[in-house]
Design goal:
- This protein has ten helices and 14 strands.
- By secondary structure, it is of the alpha/beta class.
- The chain has two domains: 119 residues, 3-Layer(aba) Sandwich (Rossmann fold); 181 residues, Dihydrodipicolinate Reductase, domain 2 (2-Layer Sandwich), CATH 3.30.360.10.
- Strands 8-9-10-7-11-12-13-14 form an eight-stranded mixed sheet, with helices on one face. Strands 3-2-1-4-5-6 form a six-stranded parallel sheet, sandwiched between helices.
- Helix 1 packs across helix 9, helix 4 packs parallel to helix 5 and helix 5 runs antiparallel to helix 10.
- The longest helix is centred in the last third of the chain and has 18 residues.
- It starts with 7 loop residues before the first strand and ends in a 13-residue tail after the last helix.
- It catalyses: D-xylose + NADP(+) = D-xylono-1,5-lactone + NADPH + H(+).
- GO terms for molecular function: D-xylose 1-dehydrogenase (NADP+) activity; nucleotide binding.
- This is D-xylose 1-dehydrogenase (NADP(+), D-xylono-1,5-lactone-forming).
- It comes from Achlya hypogyna.
Length: 351
């Protein structure tokens, strides 16, 4: 068991752009230390290690997972590889934070969670947005009943991705908008309705003619008592990207860009709107630079996971594994409506 006085030792599996940003955010977490990284080539791992002052670099993911000096693995590879790489780390008795989406489908997510529980290890899908102070404040306001009964949630996310963004446009890489960006607004809906199972999921959208991946969609989740959440996402256009929560007493808005929120607005009937600000922290000194806006906020997720593991917890109450499973079910349903099928969805051979 780890001591709370120890620093949690992180290993980075995959040295791409998102891993770069995560490590830069993690440098702000006092109780965390990145001790090793691995890539598909030793040269890439060593370049990443030099950039981020990581002492040990591997050309094999298995070698990283075998390192006795690593406590937890961050899986930052392509969507299609989250499942095998998470299982690899868990089988070597490492705690795991795996980038979202946790898996390609519900079946994979269930197996990942089952193994983590069997091995008594921490596992979490990296829904980093959940840990921003602005989003935490939204959850606190909802718990306090500031809006009264919530009737509806509206959320959107859209980017005009370039034609060479293979991770979006290639089916073999787990491409499509739902798994990459649609999961964000879906997670906001799930957050507001506290992981409740929707009674119905209705999806309309379109797929690309060449690869058959989803290019845009509107998904409506219907809940009991006439409540609903509607999300929109697009890989073809830049959206405002905000979340609006409508209740009997007014509205609560997570202002754009909601996935890296630093501002929320509460508008109660008959009262002036109240705007609350939550500035992002200053980045730690680094030889690198962020690839994505707001990535300094990875600090909040890294801090939460680090504390959970040091406290000997096996999942994070702010983003539980049951919610990851729920989102995987919703996304499977939405993909079925759109006709998006991945290799991971095919029946497995019994041989």
């Amino acid at each position: 068991m780890l001591s709370k006085q120890q620093k949690l030792r992180w290993g980075i599996l995959g040295c791409g752009r998102i891993a770069n940003d995560f490590v830069m955010g993690l440098h702000l977490v006092a109780a965390a230390r990145v001790v090793a990284c691995a890539s598909r080539s030793l040269e890439a791992a060593q370049a990443f290690g030099r950039m981020h002052d990581i002492p040990t670099c591997y050309e094999s993911y298995e070698a990283l997972c075998c390192d006795p000096n690593v406590d937890v693995i961050y899986v930052g590879t392509l969507h299609t590889l989250h499942y095998p790489h998470t299982l690899l780390a868990l089988r070597h008795n490492k705690h795991v934070l795996v980038e979202k989406p946790m898996s390609m489908n519900q079946r994979e997510a269930e197996e990942m969670i089952a193994l983590a529980r069997e091995k008594n290890l921490f596992l979490m899908e990296a829904m980093w947005t959940r840990f921003f102070p602005a989003v935490r404040q939204v959850r606190a306001l909802l718990r306090d009943g500031v809006l009264g009964a919530v009737h509806a949630v509206k959320a959107d996310m859209g980017f005009a991705f370039p034609a060479n963004a293979d991770r979006i446009w290639k089916r073999s890489l787990g491409g499509g908008g739902l798994l990459d960006i649609g999961i964000y607004p879906l997670a906001f809906v799930s957050m507001v309705f506290e992981g409740e199972e929707p009674e119905n999921v209705h999806t309309v959208g379109a797929t690309s003619a060449d690869e058959g991946v989803d290019t845009y969609a509107v998904v409506t989740l219907q809940y009991s008592k006439n409540r609903f959440g509607t999300i929109q996402y697009s890989c073809l256009a830049d959206f405002v990207e905000e979340v609006v929560i409508v209740g009997e007493k007014g509205t609560l808005r997570i202002n754009a860009p909601a996935h890296v929120a630093d501002r929320i607005t509460l508008s109660l009937h008959g009262q002036p709107s109240q705007e609350m600000h939550f500035p992002h922290p200053a980045p730690a000194p680094s030889k690198s630079s962020f690839n994505f806006g707001g990535s300094v906020g990875f600090m909040y997720e890294g801090e939460a996971v680090t504390q959970c593991i040091l406290n000997n917890e096996r999942e994070c109450s702010e983003y539980a594994l049951s919610e990851s499973l729920l989102l995987s079910r919703v996304m499977d349903s939405a993909r079925k409506s759109l006709g998006v099928v991945y290799e991971a969805d095919q029946p497995r051979s019994s041989l």
